[in-house]
Amino acid sequence: MDEAVNRNPKAGVAGVRGTARPAAQDGTGRDGPGRGDLVALLVMAYGTPQSLDEVEPYYTHIRHGRPPTPELLQELIDRYKAIGGKSPLHEITEEQARRVATTVAGRLGRPVEPFVGYLHIAPFIADAVERMAAARPRDAVGLVLAPQYSAASVALYQQAAREALERHPEAPAVHFIDHFHNHPGFVAALARRVESTLAGLPADRREGAVVIFTAHSIPQPVVDRGDPYPRHVEETAAKVAAAAGVGRWRVAYQSAGRTADPWLGPDVTDVIRQLGREGARAVVACPVGFVADHLEVLYDLDIEARQVAEEAGLAFARTPSLNADADFIEVLADLVLDRLGATRHEAAAAGARPEGQEGQ
């Protein structure tokens, strides 16, 4: 497949251009059945097992085909049991995709269909690309549900999509959104959650509270090669802290993998212990690297980090996840519209719904 990468100064974006096709009689550039004005929204996420029986194949896929030891497998199963037996990530991702598609369609005045694919469990990204190609859309936007770019995260999703697209030369250009870590709406949504969570702390703890902005750790060798991920995380944290008027805050990483290589730190539990020694009264965890409730939030923060905080004598609270909340859906819709070359103003002028009406 021929690839052309386009950069947009307003957001982190890249476009993968499919094989050129002669123009069809209907003006869509396709010569087969399909909806000539259809926009495909390729939504990519990490994935999660839907039952405890799926944990082993899921974990094996994460480990590049190497089955986990019985001890590692049981530990992961126990974590899922601790949050109720399964993560809600699958349902949240599907809802996010549906709501973004509905919002974009309403503003753009064109049909938008979401195609969801996961990195480590079915339906895989390749499955979503196959379904997308079969729908014969005119335009396509690729959205990875991760705010900060890394070669160890977003790039892997995009590579999986590119490899699948090579098998479907009939597919249109796919314009990828690389990151949205500093999008004003994303920053504002997180800031609102920080403010409300701080306000909910007991009065005697609020004054000495520290906000810890967390993101998933990545292997240190990736960082050493100049990966932008730590800079993106720091930028998100700084902007959210400024918007929320937070004076005391730290950045920490969580959920590091178990490999021979070191992983990016400091770990959130180490930061919590240090804050306890420094006399902090409370910690508020704000997971800026995650956009939905899942195991790393519901267990690693809500259970593990909370326990460490209590042992250190600190009150603990976590900001609510963005999930499919309206303010976050607005952010994702803005990103998609930008990749389609239509701002909110232009979409409204084209006959879209008034802003704020999502058609759900």
Automatic annotation (TrEMBL):
Q: Does the keyword Iron apply?
A: yes
Q: Which residues bind Fe(2+)?
A: H216, E296
**Where does it mainly reside?**
cytoplasm
Q: Where does Fe-coproporphyrin III bind?
A: Y46, R63, R79, Y80, S87, Y157
Catalytic reaction annotation: Fe-coproporphyrin III + 2 H(+) = coproporphyrin III + Fe(2+)
Please give the Gene Ontology molecular function terms for this protein: ferrochelatase activity; metal ion binding
Instruction: Please give the superkingdom of this protein's source.
Output: Bacteria
Sum up the protein's function in the record's words. Involved in coproporphyrin-dependent heme b biosynthesis. Catalyzes the insertion of ferrous iron into coproporphyrin III to form Fe-coproporphyrin III.
PANTHER family according to UniProt: FERROCHELATASE, FERROCHELATASE, MITOCHONDRIAL
What does the similarity note say? Belongs to the ferrochelatase family.
What is the name listed in the Swiss-Prot or TrEMBL entry for this protein?
Answer: Coproporphyrin III ferrochelatase
Organism of origin is Thermaerobacter marianensis (strain ATCC 700841 / DSM 12885 / JCM 10246 / 7p75a)
